[in-house]
């Protein structure tokens, strides 16, 4: 890859304590096909307000074009893909070769993200599983020497969900240890996604944030620098848990995940609050993909983290731009200026 990647430059400045607001990292998660299947690209606009049983969905070709448009815009720092879409866009079309955007692929697909229509998997304790291999992410095929130049990606998302069930959590940690060893041998970097429990963990809901923080610190305490994640992706459980984790170990770069689509203010307030309380990364999937105009949505996320607009100012500006583009908003402006309670597990 010939063009320097903004992600690496930003991470270096963050670790050196020289980062500014402009170094906040925005990632677009376009890996939902590994979770939702056919519904991943989102509904056709004409069917947006219909029920799922009646709705019609965009196609894989539509989804890939959305990704191409985001890459062409160039405002995000990471685009996260499934291995199959990475093969098409990075290896075959070489869209990242002259782009400052870093491609990444989902390296595992635990059972709590199997959110298929009619499925019940997300309601059971999360089990470790991976479809993709590091070789296929980097090269699109099995490769004996993973130090060779690659056209795919050397960065992946690894996900783990703690449930407070010793059998499932024990197995998840065994799989995580195996992945780290494989990644180190094959020159593969990763960022670590840690979800809130996807089942009732049997503790006070107010302890979910501390439960997650302790698990993160505990499991990474035994991991030396070569095996540690570039950064974390966790739910925003409020300012106190985020500040606690950030202040405990400043070398651990913390990012937040987006969760369900919600209102536009939900997304804009979330990225504002996360940045305010110490996060340096936001990885939004559905919040971007299900917006009326993803490119305009991404532009306003950038305005917020750069301190150019407050969340409510950004909502008003976003609606004004939609109007100028002739795009109907999903909600009236006054409704889009309301906050709702977004889910914090993958299926919500």
TrEMBL record:
**UniProt xrefs under Gene3D superfamilies:** Aldolase class I
InterPro entries, per database record: Aldolase_TIM
Top-level taxon: Bacteria
Name the UniProt record assigns to this protein = Fructose-bisphosphate aldolase, class I
Q: Name its species.
A: Terrimicrobium sacchariphilum
């Amino acid at each position: 890859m010939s063009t320097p990647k903004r992600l690496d430059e930003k991470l270096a400045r963050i670790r050196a304590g020289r980062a500014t607001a402009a170094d906040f990292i925005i990632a677009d998660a376009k890996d939902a096909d590994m979770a939702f299947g056919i519904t991943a690209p989102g509904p056709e606009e004409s069917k947006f307000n219909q029920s799922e049983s009646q709705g019609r969905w965009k196609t894989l070709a539509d989804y890939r074009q959305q990704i191409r448009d985001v890459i062409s815009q160039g405002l995000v720092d990471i685009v996260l893909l499934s291995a199959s879409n990475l093969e098409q866009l990075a290896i075959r079309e070489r869209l990242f070769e002259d782009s400052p955007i870093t491609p990444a692929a989902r390296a595992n697909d635990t059972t709590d993200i199997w959110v298929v229509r009619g499925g019940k998997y997300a309601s059971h304790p999360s089990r470790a599983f991976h479809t993709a291999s590091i070789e296929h992410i980097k090269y699109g095929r099995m490769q004996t020497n993973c130090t060779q130049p690659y056209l795919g990606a050397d960065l992946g998302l690894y996900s783990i969900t703690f449930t407070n069930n010793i059998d499932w959590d024990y197995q998840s940690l065994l799989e995580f240890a195996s992945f780290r060893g494989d990644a180190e041998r094959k020159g593969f970097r990763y960022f670590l996604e840690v979800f809130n429990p996807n089942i009732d963990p049997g503790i006070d809901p107010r302890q979910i944030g501390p439960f997650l923080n302790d698990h993160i610190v505990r499991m990474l305490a035994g991991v030396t620098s070569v095996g540690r994640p570039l950064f974390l992706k966790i739910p925003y459980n409020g300012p106190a848990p985020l500040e606690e984790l950030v202040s405990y170990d400043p070398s651990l770069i913390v990012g937040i995940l987006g969760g369900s689509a919600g209102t536009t203010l939900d997304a804009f307030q979330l990225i504002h609050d996360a940045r305010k309380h110490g996060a340096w990364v936001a990885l939004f999937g559905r919040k971007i993909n299900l917006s009326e105009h993803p490119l305009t949505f991404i532009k306003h996320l950038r305005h917020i983290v750069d301190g150019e607009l407050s969340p409510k100012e950004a909502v008003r500006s976003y609606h004004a731009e939609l109007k100028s583009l002739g795009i109907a908003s999903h909600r009236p402006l006054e409704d889009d200026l309301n906050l709702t309670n977004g889910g914090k597990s993958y299926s919500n």
